[in-house]
Amino acid sequence: MLLWAGLTGTTPGIAETNKIPGKQAAKTPVDFTQEVQPLLAKHCYSCHGPDVQEGGLRLDQSELAFKKLESEATAVVPNHPEQSELIARITSKDDSLQMPPEGERLKPEQIDILKNWIQQGAEWKKHWAFQPPERKNPPEPNQSQWVKNPIDAFILAGLEAKGLSPAPAADRVALIRRVYFDLTGLPPTPEEVDQFVNDSSPDAYEKLVDRLLASPRYGERWARHWLDLVRYADTNSFERDGDKPNAWRFRDYVIRSFNEDKPYSQFIKEQLAGDELDQVTNDTIIATGYYRLGLWDDEPADPLLSYYNELDDI
Fold first, then answer.
1. Whether 98 and 158 share a structural domain
2. Would the pTM count as exceeding 0.85?
3. What is the CA radius of gyration of the chain?
4. Exposed/middle/buried for residue 137 (C-beta within 10 Å: 0-12, 13-18, 19+)
5. pLDDT (tens digit, 0 to 9) for every residue of the chain, 314 residues total?
6. What is the domain range of residue 221?
7. Does residue 200 belong to any structural domain of this protein?
8. How many domains are contained in the chain?
9. Residue 120 sits in the same domain as residue 19
């Protein structure tokens, strides 16, 4: 989009952007990922992206977009659209300088988006999936005595923001039934209810939760969520509905993984590449059965559609 080679000074477009007063910046913050990045990708990346960097300019990475070029020009100068060569080029009236040089030109409203984004500081926010997790400090709600852990603080702050108060504490019978159904999917026996109700120790609930987490029933209950997600079944579906031999081995692998409290990252690696890991075991080989799950049509009417359905499942 922007051809920077041979640029030796300020281009005519710069003078035009000198008229932009700071007060004209949009009051609503411009969303980089939703508004700015799509414009850059459509109009700029073909010449100034990961594959091609004409004039040494690359606009898909902030540190390179903000970097001064050999011409001494800078494509994006945060807070200063009037100094940003990007704005100068897309607003220039000179056909030899205006960008993009070919194809669809930017519309006035699209140019305004880029101007306002730069005026607001040119925040270059990565997509949430590529941002490392950040630990947030818990809020400080008014009823601090109700808070027993950081999760409580977030919940209570949300309630107070809406003018609501927490529900009264559940009695012990309701509490044990809830935790049993949550963690094992099964109700407690009358004897287990009586034992919990009569346990006066301050950590009675914590002991109950630890016992249920250590139960094999916990893995059986919670593995079902993952098995549903990856479309586990013992048969192939459709009219023939043939068996998937040994599919149960994958089911049991998932149950074991939950009961062993396996790290999620390891759990995913084993299913995607269990036969390529440094430590290959029977379990990691079984984990690759993930690729055999989902619908299987042995006589698809549309083979290409069937192929893409399989990719979509993966």
1. no
2. no
3. 30
4. exposed
5. 444 444 434 444 444 444 444 444 446 899 998 999 999 998 888 889 889 888 888 898 888 889 888 778 899 999 999 999 999 989 988 877 888 888 788 899 999 999 999 999 999 887 788 888 888 899 999 988 999 999 999 999 999 999 999 999 999 999 999 999 999 999 999 999 999 999 999 999 999 999 999 999 999 999 999 999 998 988 877 767 778 889 999 999 999 999 999 999 999 999 999 999 999 999 999 999 998 887 777 777 888 887 887 777 76
6. 217-313
7. yes
8. 4
9. yes
